[in-house]
Amino acid sequence: MSPAFMFLLIALGLVATELLIMQFSVFWFLFFGIGALVTSLVCWLLPELGWTAAWGLFFVSSLLTSFVLFRPLRRWQAQPSPLAGNDAIGQIGDVIEAIEAGGEGKVSWSGAEWPARAESGETFAVGDKATIRALDGISLIVGR
User: Fold this and answer.
1) Pairing between strand 129-136 and 92-97?
2) What per-residue confidence (pLDDT) applies to 8?
3) pLDDT tens digits for range 127-144
4) Around 94, how many Cα atoms within 13 Å sit in the side-chain half-sphere?
């Protein structure tokens, strides 16, 4: 097996591990995967490169990748993410259990039943459409 093919397999394994298992939480698999990809490319372009030089290139390119990408990836990772569930706000659900003013009922949204309360004293009958205005725990606050 040539060093180019071997390091290509190593790169695919490391990058896949980072993406599928670590989900961009560790980055070291990604850094070494990029280093292996660089090594594979260089070994493919320079087939006379031996195994010792290939392993040396792998470690050097992995370290350089680490130094270059660590801070930007940490900054990207530290950015605030949108709150879970905010994709519900503004969506429309079907009332499946009447919602009285000040009381609770149920709304069907996104294939599930959710406890719901009406905002500002509105009432909803079964079959009405309700727009999700806010979330309170697992309860939907709905309006017209």
Assistant:
1) antiparallel
2) 94
3) 889 888 888 887 888 888
4) 7
Task: Locate the domains of the chain by residue range.
Answer: 3-78, 92-143
Distance separating alpha carbons of residues 112 and 117, to the nearest angstrom: 16
Beta strand 139-143 pairing with 112-118: parallel
pTM above 0.85, yes or no: no
Q: pLDDT for 114-124, tens place per residue?
A: 899 888 778 88
Fold topology of 92-143: OB fold (Dihydrolipoamide Acetyltransferase, E2P) (2.40.50)
CA distance 65 to 61: 6
Q: Is the distance from CB of 97 to CB of 83 less than 8 angstroms?
A: no
- Exposed (0-12), middle (13-18) or buried (19+): which is 133, by Cβ within 10 Å? middle
Token readout for 16 is 């896949």
- From the list 72, 62, 69, the residue with the least C-alpha distance to 42 is 62
